[in-house]
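Run folding on both entries below.
>entry_1
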Amino acid sequence: MDHNTREQINLIIQKTKELGALYHEAAHKSGISDGEAAIWSILLNGNEEYSQQDLTEILFLPKQTVNSLITRMGRKGYLTLEHAPGTRNRKIIKLTESGRNFGEKQVRWIFEAEKKAMEDTNSAEVEACVSMLEKYSAQFRKELIKNS
C-alpha cells in the first residue's frame, strides 16, 4: 500500500472518530449514554414505529446492547413496549409522555445542532462524502468477506 492511500485511510478513521467524540460529548452533556442518544435520535426524529430489531439494524448495534438500552430507558419511564398486532413476538417502542418531555427538553438540542451544522455545509460536499463512504464501506465489506 502506498503512503498516500494509508494517509487517506487514517484520515477517514480519524474524522469518523472525531465525529463520534462530538456525539459522545453531546450525549454526556444531556446526561445520557451514546447508545441512548442514538435511540433518541430515531425515536424523536423518525416517522415510523420501531421495534428493537429495527433499531439494531438501523444503528448497527448488537441486539443485546439495544435490549439493554431499551430496558434502561423503560425503567426510567421514558418508553413502553407494545405487542405488534399480527406478529409472534415483535414489540413496538412507544415514548411515554414523560419520555417525550425528557427527549424534547434534554436531547432535542443535539439534533437541532446537527441540523444547523448540515444547513451550514455545502450540499454537494455532503452528497460526495456520503457517496464516498457508501462505496468505501461496500468495498471494505467485500474485502473482509473475501479474506475471511
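>entry_2
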Amino acid sequence: MFFGHKNKPQSELQVDLGDLQNEKENLASFLQLHLKVSVSQVENKLTVDSEKVSLKDLEHVVNKFVYHRDLNNTHWVSVEGASTVKINRFKVIEKKEKHEPEPPHQTAMQSWGL
C-alpha cells in the first residue's frame, strides 16, 4: 500500500461474446464448472464475480472454451481494458489469384535474330 494506493478488487469481470451469442449458455455453464463462481447474463455479455477470479484466469478459461468448442479456427480471445475478456472473430482476407501475363511468344524471325 505505497503512496496511499489501495488494491481494491473489482466487483465484476465481463466476457464479451462478440458474434457467439448462441454460445452464451454453454459458456456460462463452462465458466461455472471450471471457475466455481456465479455467472450472470447482462445484455450481450456474461458477468463473473471477480473476488474469486482474476482477469488472467478468466481469459485462460474462455480460451479453453473456444478450443473445446473447436472455434479456434475462426475466433480468438483477448483482454480489453481492466475488466473485459472478448471473443473476437478472425477477419477473412480473400486471396486474389495471381495471373501473371505470359511473355509474348517469339516469332521465327525473332528467334533467329533476323
